[in-house]
Write a structure and sequence with these properties.
This is F-box domain-containing protein. By secondary structure, the protein is α/β, with parallel strands linked by helices. The protein has a domain at 292-419. The chain has helices at 17-25, 32-46, 50-62, 69-81, 109-112, 156-160, 179-187, 240-250, 306-317, 340-361, 391-401, 403-407; strands at 63-66, 91-96, 122-127, 168-172, 175-178, 194-198, 201-204, 232-236, 256-261, 293-298, 325-332, 377-386, 411-417. The strands form two sheets. It has an eleven-stranded parallel β-sheet with strand order 1-2-3-4-6-8-9-10-11-12-13. A two-stranded parallel ribbon has the order 5-7.
Length: 419
């Protein structure tokens, strides 16, 4: 693979190496299913010749997917034998069914890879459930026992903090014993700027961690704030108590927040014996003074849930940001769960709830010259996925749902044509 040989026929032209490299770059995919298939192709490309090897290896090791403990150990051995590959790794994904077992590779991840990934930017931890059909079936080991939660070493946060360059953490379908375990994992990454939690549970909520407690005065304030560089927070299908704690702790630094509605109330989570200090209704954005964008992922149940509609209005109403324009994005949680009429009805309901808020903001000045809601301005984005022939119908309907913003040119529809 390290030797180029002259082609036996000098009359046959060769493609420039830049063309081959561009084709190799196209084998990188953001989607997990495609990434597994493309990895095999990149392996083969790396063996073709020296000119292809570097580009193929850069793509192959840019985003590494590890399925279990043997895969983690093998990856570590590869880096030991070829240290130049350490510079290529920017993303590491732990995925599979072994995360909630006694053979979970997560606790060993920061230990085995300590000091080997100087450019690591993103860590994704994604557990597939036993009944998940999208993940290939693997043979079960007799020494592997299933657990109801994520087994973490008591000093995991200390080891995890060695990933000083990681700016994005994504955790999916994980269950922690205590909320404190989740908060320590987040807080341990010193450069963390983006956190994504989807279907993350905690068996017990527990007391509010010390570095999340409100700072009443400078004397009792913790020395280091929680996740002091975290700016983008995305929480989907996470219990409302956990959402409230994370938003409150990170509020002054958040620039983007995404939540799913209706809010999840985990009936199986053990709450503390003493009453919690969190807001009993929805998410309070009063501390989010730098927030520029709020994404609300809408679920079908929101149409008939009166309490959730009240929380939907209260959340942006509490938004006390210093930014000149507040951007709200309305997105269907899972577009396939909606019929056309169902999503149209949902937008009509949401429009009735939010229109009063928008109307007050764009109301003409009063006699003393004051503008409604202290002059705050809104920009609303609505995501729609449908066939191209329905584009005009949807735009007409969206404008009817939010007439105030439509008149003030503060309304935009992101239309994604079905293929």
């Amino acid at each position: 693979m390290d030797h180029d040989r002259a082609h036996p026929n000098p009359n046959v032209s060769r493609f420039p190496v830049e063309v081959c490299e561009n084709i190799i770059d196209m084998l990188y995919s953001l989607f997990f299913v495609d990434r597994v298939a493309n990895s095999r192709a990149l392996h083969r490309c790396a063996l073709v010749c020296r000119a292809w090897r570097v580009r193929s290896q850069r793509n192959l090791f840019y985003s590494v997917v590890l399925h279990d403990l043997p895969a983690l150990q093998k990856f570590s051995a590869v880096l030991d034998n070829a240290p130049h590959l350490c510079e290529y790794v920017y993303e590491v994904t732990l995925v599979g069914r072994t995360l909630h077992t006694t053979a979970s590779p997560l606790s060993l991840l920061p230990i085995v890879l300590r000091g080997k990934l100087p450019k690591l930017q993103e860590v994704t931890i994604n557990r597939f459930r036993e009944d998940a059909k999208s993940y290939p079936t693997t043979s079960k080991s007799g020494t592997m026992k299933p657990l109801q939660y994520l087994p973490l070493h008591p000093r995991f946060a200390v080891y995890f903090s060695a990933f000083t360059t990681v700016s994005r953490l994504c955790i999916v379908n994980l269950t922690f014993v205590h909320f404190n375990d989740l908060s320590r994992m987040i807080d341990s990454l010193p450069a963390l700027r983006t956190l994504v939690c989807s279907h993350v549970r905690c068996v017990a909520l527990g007391a509010l961690p010390f570095n999340m407690k409100p700072r009443a005065d400078g004397i009792h304030a913790p020395a280091t704030p929680f996740a002091q560089k975290l700016q983008k927070l995305r929480l989907w299908s996470v219990d409302i108590h956990c959402v409230q704690r994370l938003v409150s702790a990170c509020g002054p630094r958040l620039t983007e927040l995404a939540v799913s509605m209706p809010f999840l109330h985990d009936a199986e989570m053990v709450l503390p014996g003493v009453p919690t200090t969190e807001s009993p209704v929805g998410v309070d954005l009063s501390l989010c003074t730098m927030l520029e964008r709020l994404d609300i992922d809408l679920g079908p149940e929101l149409v008939t849930d009166g309490q959730s509609l009240h929380e939907l209005k209260a959340m942006p109403n509490s938004w006390d940001s210093a930014v000149p324009v507040r951007n709200i994005h309305l997105v269907p949680v899972i577009p396939s769960e909606f019929t056309r009429q169902c999503f149209a009805d949902l937008l009509s309901t949401v429009g009735r709830v939010l229109e009063e808020l928008f109307h007050d903001s764009y109301a003409p000045p009063s006699g003393d010259g004051e503008v409604g809601e202290q002059g705050r301005r809104w920009r609303l984005w609505v995501d729609v996925c449908d066939w191209e022939v329905w584009r005009d119908w949807w735009w007409t309907h969206v404008q009817k749902c939010f007439p105030t913003l439509a008149k003030s040119h503060g309304l935009t529809m992101n239309f994604d044509p079905r293929k």
